Amino acid sequence: MSRYGLDKKDANLDEITQNSLKSKALFEEIMSGVLSKDDIIRYNCYQILLHLSEEKPDFLYRHWNYFHKMLKSNNNYHQNIAINILANLSKVDGENKFDKIFQEYYGILAGERAMTASHVALNSSTIYIHKPELRNQILDQLLNVDEIHHGKQKELIKSYAIESLLKIYPYSEDKKRIDTFVKSQLESSSPKTRNMAACFLERCE
Protein backbone atom coordinates (compact mmCIF):
# COMPACT_ATOMS: atom_id res chain seq x y z
CA MET A 1 0.00 0.00 0.00
CA SER A 2 1.33 3.40 -1.02
CA ARG A 3 1.14 6.18 1.53
CA TYR A 4 0.97 8.68 -1.34
CA GLY A 5 -1.95 7.06 -3.15
CA LEU A 6 0.11 5.68 -6.02
CA ASP A 7 -1.81 2.42 -5.81
CA LYS A 8 -5.16 4.07 -6.62
CA LYS A 9 -6.66 4.10 -10.11
CA ASP A 10 -8.13 7.55 -9.52
CA ALA A 11 -4.96 9.06 -8.05
CA ASN A 12 -4.51 12.77 -8.75
CA LEU A 13 -1.34 12.41 -10.79
CA ASP A 14 -0.97 16.12 -11.49
CA GLU A 15 -0.96 16.89 -7.78
CA ILE A 16 1.40 14.01 -6.98
CA THR A 17 3.73 15.14 -9.75
CA GLN A 18 3.95 18.65 -8.34
CA ASN A 19 4.46 17.32 -4.81
CA SER A 20 7.26 15.05 -6.02
CA LEU A 21 9.30 18.12 -6.91
CA LYS A 22 9.28 19.12 -3.24
CA SER A 23 9.29 15.76 -1.45
CA LYS A 24 12.37 13.56 -1.71
CA ALA A 25 10.54 10.64 -0.06
CA LEU A 26 7.67 10.83 -2.55
CA PHE A 27 10.02 11.08 -5.51
CA GLU A 28 11.99 8.06 -4.32
CA GLU A 29 8.76 6.07 -4.00
CA ILE A 30 7.85 7.04 -7.57
CA MET A 31 11.26 5.99 -8.83
CA SER A 32 11.02 2.59 -7.16
CA GLY A 33 7.33 2.27 -8.02
CA VAL A 34 7.98 2.42 -11.74
CA LEU A 35 9.55 -1.03 -11.35
CA SER A 36 6.66 -2.38 -9.27
CA LYS A 37 4.91 -5.61 -10.22
CA ASP A 38 1.64 -3.90 -9.31
CA ASP A 39 0.18 -2.66 -12.60
CA ILE A 40 -1.55 0.38 -11.11
CA ILE A 41 1.50 1.56 -9.16
CA ARG A 42 3.80 1.00 -12.12
CA TYR A 43 1.44 2.83 -14.49
CA ASN A 44 0.92 5.81 -12.16
CA CYS A 45 4.63 6.16 -11.47
CA TYR A 46 5.46 5.91 -15.15
CA GLN A 47 2.93 8.60 -16.07
CA ILE A 48 4.42 10.91 -13.44
CA LEU A 49 7.99 10.32 -14.61
CA LEU A 50 7.00 10.69 -18.25
CA HIS A 51 5.36 14.03 -17.47
CA LEU A 52 8.44 15.16 -15.55
CA SER A 53 10.69 14.14 -18.45
CA GLU A 54 8.57 16.31 -20.75
CA GLU A 55 8.02 19.33 -18.50
CA LYS A 56 10.94 19.18 -16.03
CA PRO A 57 13.71 17.27 -17.85
CA ASP A 58 16.43 19.04 -15.84
CA PHE A 59 14.93 17.59 -12.67
CA LEU A 60 15.19 14.03 -13.99
CA TYR A 61 18.46 14.36 -15.88
CA ARG A 62 20.50 13.70 -12.74
CA HIS A 63 18.91 10.24 -12.68
CA TRP A 64 20.01 9.37 -16.21
CA ASN A 65 21.92 6.29 -15.08
CA TYR A 66 18.80 4.87 -13.40
CA PHE A 67 16.90 4.96 -16.69
CA HIS A 68 19.92 3.78 -18.62
CA LYS A 69 19.97 0.71 -16.38
CA MET A 70 16.29 0.14 -17.20
CA LEU A 71 17.17 0.32 -20.89
CA LYS A 72 19.29 -2.79 -20.39
CA SER A 73 16.44 -4.71 -18.76
CA ASN A 74 15.02 -7.89 -20.27
CA ASN A 75 11.59 -6.69 -19.15
CA ASN A 76 9.81 -5.10 -22.13
CA TYR A 77 7.80 -2.69 -19.99
CA HIS A 78 10.84 -1.44 -18.10
CA GLN A 79 12.74 -1.05 -21.34
CA ASN A 80 9.91 0.90 -22.98
CA ILE A 81 9.80 3.29 -20.05
CA ALA A 82 13.52 3.96 -20.45
CA ILE A 83 13.23 4.37 -24.23
CA ASN A 84 10.60 7.08 -23.84
CA ILE A 85 12.13 8.94 -20.92
CA LEU A 86 15.72 8.95 -22.21
CA ALA A 87 14.48 10.40 -25.49
CA ASN A 88 12.84 13.28 -23.61
CA LEU A 89 15.94 13.84 -21.50
CA SER A 90 18.00 14.31 -24.67
CA LYS A 91 16.61 17.87 -24.65
CA VAL A 92 18.86 18.76 -21.70
CA ASP A 93 21.73 16.39 -22.42
CA GLY A 94 24.53 18.87 -21.89
CA GLU A 95 26.95 16.07 -21.04
CA ASN A 96 26.23 14.19 -24.28
CA LYS A 97 25.25 11.06 -22.43
CA PHE A 98 22.92 9.97 -25.19
CA ASP A 99 25.77 10.02 -27.69
CA LYS A 100 27.52 7.40 -25.57
CA ILE A 101 24.52 5.05 -25.53
CA PHE A 102 23.48 5.60 -29.16
CA GLN A 103 24.47 2.12 -30.33
CA GLU A 104 22.81 0.54 -27.32
CA TYR A 105 19.57 2.50 -27.81
CA TYR A 106 19.34 1.76 -31.52
CA GLY A 107 20.43 -1.80 -30.97
CA ILE A 108 16.86 -2.24 -29.72
CA LEU A 109 15.57 -1.14 -33.12
CA ALA A 110 17.71 -3.89 -34.60
CA GLY A 111 16.32 -6.49 -32.23
CA GLU A 112 13.46 -8.90 -32.74
CA ARG A 113 10.89 -7.40 -30.35
CA ALA A 114 8.35 -5.28 -32.20
CA MET A 115 7.04 -3.38 -29.18
CA THR A 116 10.38 -2.00 -28.05
CA ALA A 117 11.65 -1.45 -31.60
CA SER A 118 8.53 0.57 -32.45
CA HIS A 119 9.10 2.80 -29.42
CA VAL A 120 12.67 3.50 -30.55
CA ALA A 121 11.44 4.42 -34.02
CA LEU A 122 8.68 6.64 -32.64
CA ASN A 123 10.97 8.47 -30.21
CA SER A 124 13.63 9.09 -32.84
CA SER A 125 12.06 12.40 -33.86
CA THR A 126 12.45 13.77 -30.33
CA ILE A 127 16.12 12.82 -30.22
CA TYR A 128 16.68 14.09 -33.78
CA ILE A 129 15.31 17.52 -32.89
CA HIS A 130 17.33 17.86 -29.68
CA LYS A 131 20.62 16.27 -30.81
CA PRO A 132 21.70 17.90 -34.12
CA GLU A 133 25.06 16.12 -34.04
CA LEU A 134 23.26 12.76 -34.26
CA ARG A 135 20.80 13.63 -37.02
CA ASN A 136 22.55 11.83 -39.85
CA GLN A 137 22.92 8.67 -37.78
CA ILE A 138 19.29 8.74 -36.65
CA LEU A 139 18.04 9.26 -40.19
CA ASP A 140 20.16 6.36 -41.41
CA GLN A 141 18.59 4.13 -38.77
CA LEU A 142 15.05 5.00 -39.80
CA LEU A 143 15.59 4.88 -43.55
CA ASN A 144 17.37 1.54 -43.32
CA VAL A 145 14.99 -0.10 -40.88
CA ASP A 146 14.22 -2.78 -43.48
CA GLU A 147 17.80 -4.05 -43.19
CA ILE A 148 18.26 -3.18 -39.51
CA HIS A 149 15.24 -4.70 -37.76
CA HIS A 150 15.36 -8.49 -37.39
CA GLY A 151 11.87 -9.19 -36.11
CA LYS A 152 8.81 -10.55 -37.91
CA GLN A 153 6.90 -7.25 -37.73
CA LYS A 154 9.33 -5.31 -39.93
CA GLU A 155 6.60 -3.82 -42.12
CA LEU A 156 4.70 -2.58 -39.08
CA ILE A 157 7.82 -0.99 -37.58
CA LYS A 158 8.07 1.13 -40.73
CA SER A 159 4.79 2.86 -39.86
CA TYR A 160 6.37 4.16 -36.66
CA ALA A 161 9.47 5.19 -38.58
CA ILE A 162 7.29 7.20 -40.98
CA GLU A 163 5.40 8.80 -38.10
CA SER A 164 8.76 9.92 -36.71
CA LEU A 165 9.96 11.10 -40.13
CA LEU A 166 6.89 13.31 -40.41
CA LYS A 167 8.13 15.29 -37.40
CA ILE A 168 11.73 15.17 -38.60
CA TYR A 169 10.94 16.39 -42.12
CA PRO A 170 10.85 20.16 -41.42
CA TYR A 171 14.31 19.97 -39.84
CA SER A 172 15.93 17.70 -42.40
CA GLU A 173 18.28 18.71 -45.20
CA ASP A 174 17.81 15.29 -46.76
CA LYS A 175 14.16 15.49 -47.77
CA LYS A 176 14.66 13.60 -51.04
CA ARG A 177 15.87 10.48 -49.23
CA ILE A 178 12.93 10.68 -46.87
CA ASP A 179 10.47 11.14 -49.75
CA THR A 180 11.92 8.15 -51.59
CA PHE A 181 11.64 5.92 -48.52
CA VAL A 182 8.08 6.96 -47.74
CA LYS A 183 6.89 6.56 -51.33
CA SER A 184 8.33 3.04 -51.39
CA GLN A 185 6.07 2.15 -48.46
CA LEU A 186 2.87 2.82 -50.39
CA GLU A 187 3.09 -0.83 -51.44
CA SER A 188 3.88 -2.18 -47.98
CA SER A 189 2.18 -5.37 -46.87
CA SER A 190 1.15 -3.55 -43.68
CA PRO A 191 -2.10 -1.55 -44.03
CA LYS A 192 -0.99 0.75 -41.22
CA THR A 193 2.29 1.50 -42.99
CA ARG A 194 0.56 2.12 -46.32
CA ASN A 195 -1.87 4.52 -44.66
CA MET A 196 0.89 6.30 -42.77
CA ALA A 197 2.89 6.72 -45.99
CA ALA A 198 -0.13 8.18 -47.77
CA CYS A 199 -0.80 10.54 -44.86
CA PHE A 200 2.83 11.65 -44.83
CA LEU A 201 2.86 12.43 -48.55
CA GLU A 202 -0.40 14.37 -48.38
CA ARG A 203 0.86 16.53 -45.54
CA CYS A 204 4.41 17.04 -46.78
CA GLU A 205 3.79 17.54 -50.46
Structure in words:
The chain folds into two domains: 1-55; 101-204. The protein is 69% helix and 0% strand. It has helices at 13-20, 24-33, 39-55, 57-61, 64-71, 76-89, 97-107, 114-130, 135-143, 145-148, 154-168, 175-184, 191-204. Helix 1 (13-20) packs across helix 3, helix 6 runs parallel beside helix 8 and helix 8 packs antiparallel against helix 9 (135-143).
Short descriptors:
205 residues, mainly alpha, 2 domains, 13 helices, elongated
Q: Ranges with pLDDT <50 over ≥5 residues? A: none
Please give the share of residues in helix: 55-70%
Q: What is the number of E strands?
A: 0
Q: What does the overall shape look like?
A: elongated
Beta-strand residue percentage: under 5%
The main sheet comes to:
none
Distance between the termini: 54 Å
Number of DSSP helical runs: 13
Topology:
Elements: H1 13-20, H2 24-33, H3 39-55, H4 57-61, H5 64-71, H6 76-89, H7 97-107, H8 114-130, H9 135-143, H10 145-148, H11 154-168, H12 175-184, H13 191-204
Helix pairs in contact: 1-3, 2-3, 3-6, 5-6, 6-8, 8-9, 8-11, 11-13
What's this entry about, in short?
The protein has 205 residues and is mainly alpha-helical. Helix content is 69%, strand content 0%.
